[in-house]
């Protein structure tokens, strides 16, 4: 049992790599604010589905990966991911019972918090955006949440990730 | 969490994490390689999925262009020698022959707030921090971080970037600042009485010691004289195609640091 469990956790890493790739995919300048935060979405899903496996440390690791890959300030996304993961782990029991649209609203708040922290670190280096701008990714993420949830749920069951 | 805050502060305010970051950037290169596949496929398609007629047409057009440029160059040779002679007369420093290295853009910063691009040359090719980057139209930016195989370039439109320029027409000096918009920059502290007009070409003045002198930076598109404000608002459109150029040029100021395979001006003249 132990062996098969360890065997299937690679899938989380695969989703992380896919998420990282999607988040550095070049997009036209006009819609660059509408790029969902894929890595955050994926880790919200995993911390809801496997709260005993995915904790604050793995969220921190994912955030560091995102920082390295997107050439951001080291720790920028890690900080935001840690906060989001902490809130997810506190409330996963309640969120799991929600309907999709309710979860979407909640995801909007989570990614919004993420964006808030990212923007806070950005403002240290002189880049800062208006809230109406930096909340757009949160909006896009909320819209994408049902799709992400469905796809990941299906793969999680297929590969018996635990 | 506290640890992360410490890391963030370390990275923002101290240079201690620089070497770690430049090593870590090796990890991120494969991701950019993957996301670059679609554009490489389309480029391959443009190269291979064309008819013979199209190729012939393109060939003819390129030959005509070459002729035009060669005619211009003939005129240039005389101008250059005249320039050198005049400079000798004036006892001023001689022009340094700059070397360039052709690089390819492999990624764009995923954060819309940060105008950075990733190029496929790094410390293996002697790229150094502060090195200017050009495209065929004008100045693009400067290298801010160097990894072994790739480096990051801060574009001139980033809101943390500013560079000294002068108006090509009359030599008025100014500082052009990025405002976080790819198509617009602003001139800083230009008083209302300065002789500057819409359509003026701004070239780098070389005063900041970072950028070489005389490369086009942008054209003035709009001037706002608002009596309520102490300075005139001057909007500048960058010359370089900041979101379209794929092939870019790195300029080496000191020829001794340049790698072997860079093009020098004498090479170019041999090609000619």
TrEMBL record, chain A:
InterPro entries: Cell_shape_determining_MreD (IPR007227), MreD_proteobac (IPR026034). Pfam families: MreD. The chain crosses the membrane at residues 6-27, 39-62, 68-92, 104-122, 134-152. It is a multi-pass membrane protein. It comes from the Bacteria. Keywords: Cell inner membrane, Cell membrane, Cell shape, Membrane, Transmembrane, Transmembrane helix. Its main location: membrane. It is found in: Cell inner membrane; Cell membrane. Belongs to the MreD family. Involved in formation of the rod shape of the cell. May also contribute to regulation of formation of penicillin-binding proteins. PANTHER family: ROD SHAPE-DETERMINING PROTEIN MRED. This is Rod shape-determining protein MreD.
Automatic annotation (TrEMBL), chain B:
Signal peptide: none annotated. InterPro entries: Cell/Rod_1, Cell/Rod_MreC_2, MreC, MreC_beta-barrel_core. It comes from the Bacteria. Keywords: Cell shape. Residues 106-251 form the Rod shape-determining protein MreC beta-barrel core domain. Belongs to the MreC family. Involved in formation and maintenance of cell shape. This is Cell shape-determining protein MreC.
């Amino acid at each position: 049992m132990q062996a098969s469990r360890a065997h299937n956790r690679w899938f989380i890493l695969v989703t992380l790599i896919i998420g990282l790739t999607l988040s550095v995919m070049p997009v036209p300048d006009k819609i660059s604010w509408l790029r969902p935060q894929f890595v955050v979405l994926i880790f919200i899903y995993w911390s809801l589905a496997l709260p005993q496996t995915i904790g604050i440390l793995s969220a921190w690791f994912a955030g560091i990966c995102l920082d390295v890959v997107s050439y951001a300030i080291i720790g920028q996304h890690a900080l935001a991911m840690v906060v989001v993961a902490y809130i997810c782990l506190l409330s996963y029991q309640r969120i799991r019972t929600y309907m999709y649209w309710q979860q979407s609203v909640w995801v909007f708040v989570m990614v919004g918090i993420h964006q808030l922290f990212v923007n806070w670190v950005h403002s240290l280096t002189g880049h800062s955006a208006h809230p109406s701008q930096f909340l757009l990714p949160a909006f896009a993420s909320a819209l994408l949440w049902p799709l992400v949830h469905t796809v990941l749920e299906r793969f999680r069951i297929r590969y018996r990730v635990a | 969490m506290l640890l992360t805050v410490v890391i963030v502060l370390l990275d923002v305010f101290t240079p201690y994490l620089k070497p770690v970051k430049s090593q870590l950037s090796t990890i991120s290169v494969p991701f950019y390689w993957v996301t670059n596949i679609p554009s490489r496929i389309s480029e391959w398609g443009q190269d291979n999925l064309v008819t013979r007629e199209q190729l012939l047409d393109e060939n003819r057009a390129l030959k005509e262009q070459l002729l035009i440029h060669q005619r211009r160059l003939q005129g240039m040779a005389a101008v250059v020698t005249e320039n050198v002679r005049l400079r000798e007369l004036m006892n001023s420093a001689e022009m340094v022959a700059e070397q360039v290295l052709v690089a390819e853009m492999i990624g764009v910063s995923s954060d819309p707030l940060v105008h950075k691009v990733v190029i496929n040359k790094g410390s293996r090719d002697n790229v150094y921090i502060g090195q200017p980057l050009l495209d065929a139209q004008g100045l693009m930016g400067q290298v801010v971080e160097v990894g072994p195989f790739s480096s990051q370039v801060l574009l001139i439109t980033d809101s943390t970037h500013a560079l000294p320029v002068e108006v090509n027409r009359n030599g008025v000096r100014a500082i052009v600042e990025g405002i976080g918009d790819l198509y617009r920059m602003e001139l800083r502290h230009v008083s209302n009485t300065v002789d500057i007009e819409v359509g003026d070409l701004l070239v780098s003045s070389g005063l900041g010691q970072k950028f070489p002198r005389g490369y086009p930076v942008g054209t003035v598109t709009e001037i706002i004289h608002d009596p309520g404000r102490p300075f005139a608002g001057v909007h500048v459109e960058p010359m370089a195609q900041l979101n379209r150029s794929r092939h870019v040029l790195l300029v080496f100021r000191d020829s001794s640091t340049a790698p072997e395979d860079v093009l020098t001006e004498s090479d170019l003249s041999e090609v000619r």
